[in-house]
Structures are given as structure tokens and as C-alpha cells.
Amino acid sequence: MFLTRVLCKLVLWLLHALLVVAETLSLIRHRLLHRLEYKSVYSNSKLDPAKFACSPSSVHRSLHSFCKVPKHVAVVIGESLVSYRDVANLVVWCLFARIPHVTLYDVEGVMKKNWSELYKEVLRSQKKHFGSCDTSKVVLYVEGKETTEKNGRNGYTHHVHVRLASNEDGRPLFAKFARKLCQEVKEGRLSPSDIVPDLIQKQVSGDWPDPDILLRFGKAHSVFGYQPWQLRLTEIISLPTHHNLRLSEFLGALRTYDNREQRFGK
Q1: For residues 116, 122, 124 and 127, what is the CA-based torsion angle, rounded to 10 degrees?
Q2: For residues 145 and 206, what is the distance between their CA atoms, to the nearest angstrom?
Q3: CA 150 to each of CA 69, 103, 145, 146, 186: distance values in angstroms, whole numbers, following the listed order
Q4: Each residue of 197-230: pLDDT tens digit?
Q5: Signal peptide: which range, if any (predicted)?
Q6: What is the pairing mode between strands 213-217 and 136-142?
Q7: Per DSSP, what are the bridge partners of residue 77?
Q8: What's the Rg (C-alpha) of the chain?
Q9: What mean pLDDT do residues 181-205 have?
Q10: Rounded distance, CA 137 to CA 103, Å?
Q11: How deeply is 95 buried, as exposed, middle or buried, from its count of CB atoms within 10 A (0-12, 13-18, 19+)?
Q12: What's the half-sphere exposure (Cβ side, CA atoms, 13 Å) at 135?
């Protein structure tokens, strides 16, 4: 029995080691393919990441060559560890591209619980890329409420609204709203004829538009409970990890979205 247990543990250890090696090789393959694709596509282009950090406005000018730029980017973190530094960089890159709405989603709501730490990283990344005289503002929403502005400056010319979401904002939120409607109908404060799609849309999504693009980070091909009613026309793009994410990878995702032919059911 002892020998059998030792043998089983050895087999499990070997399987785990093989999986780790396979994931590492897969990530290396992704990085290499991305670099080769980047060199072939952008070698004669203005989209040079080395210039972006120094001049964010050049990103906006370069994106004029795109036929479409998303107005709302959703980010789904399907990894166990969240890198606040890399997520903050992603938010600031959306400022580069003048994308006004960003939703950051993880199943357990880790970013919602640690929103102050994330916000500090966003401000640090914003100062690093834009400088101290930046006129852009990142507005963070937690549980549907805007967080307190930290720096107290006015005169902002660009905004990016960042909403933190988790599994609680998916089906549980919809079920909670349905119970509320039933209670109001039961008490006579609401007529069944008043329950229309616009009312439901406003309650569960607010004034936010549906995401144009969803960036899914992780190995699993899942949206991890993200609000399904918002993803009817959303383009889903998968990336292996958000750790050490490069600006060129983000722009590559935007170019992939730009090249997608959307027929909207036609």
C-alpha cells in the first residue's frame, strides 16, 4: 500500500509538471507569434509602442486609420491572481485610444474588494504615461456608485469610466431585480404593462452601452458568468494572460476588432 501511494503521488506530480511546462510553452509560443505578427504588420506603420509611452496623442492619431474603435471594452480576468499594475496599464491604454467605457470583471470580485489599490495603480500608471499635467480623468464605479476623486483637479478634457463587476452583477442581479418587480406588482405600485424592455435595460445596465469588444484573459474558453444579455453583439477576443501585457497586444486586439465583419444578424 505504501508503495502504491508513493507511485500515485509521483504520477500526479509528473502530470502537474507536464501541465505547467505545457502552459509555459503555450505562453512562449503566443509571445513569439505575436512578435512575428507585429513585425510583419506594423513594421512600416506608425503604431510603434516605443513612441506611445512618450506621446499618447500619437496613438489617437494612428487609430484614425481604423474604421471603428470600440466605445466600451469589457475585460474578463479568468486567472486566479490579478495583477493590478497590468490592469491599470490596460485602463490607461484605453485613455490612449479615447475609449470612454471600460468594465473590469472577475468572478470573485477581487478587484471590487480592493478597488482602492487598483485606483492607486491607475493613477500611478496615468502619471507615468501622461505626466503630472494630464487633463484626463479615470472615473471608477464600484457597486454602481462613483468613487471619490483623489486629486481634486478640474478642467478634464477626456474621461474613461471604469466599472468593476463580478459574478454578483450577472444572474443574481437580474434575479434580484425580478423579485423587486414582482413585489411592486403585488403591492399595486407597478402595473404589469409597465414592465418593458427599456425599464429592465436601465435597471440592470444603467446608461452604459453594451460592450463592443470583450478581452478574455486565461486558459478557459468561458465568460465566467459575465452579464450574457450585454454580449449579444460583442466581439470576444481571447488572450492567454494579462500578466506583463504589452501595449502592442492591446492594439492588436483593437485591430482584430477593426478587421471583424459584423453583420448584426443580416
Answers
A1: -140
A2: 11
A3: 29, 20, 15, 12, 44
A4: 777 777 777 778 899 999 999 888 888 989 888 8
A5: 1-22
A6: unpaired
A7: 106, 217
A8: 22
A9: 81
A10: 16
A11: buried
A12: 5
DSSP state, 148? P
For the chain, what are the domain ranges? 1-44, 48-259
Copy the grid coordinates of residue 7. Answer: 507511485
* Placement of cell 509521483 in the chain: 10
Collapse the DSSP code of 12 into the 3-class scheme (helix H, G, I; strand E, B; otherwise coil) and give the result: helix
Count how many residues are written for the chain: 266
Residue 89: which region, alpha, beta or left (left: phi > 0; alpha: psi -120 to 50)?
alpha
| HEC per residue, 179-201 | HHHHHHHHCCCCCHHHCCHHHHH
3.20.20.150, 3.40.30.10, 3.40.1180.10, 3.40.50.1820: CATH of 48-259:
3.40.1180.10
Would you say 34 and 252 are in contact if contact means Cβ atoms under 8 Å apart? yes
pTM over 0.90: no
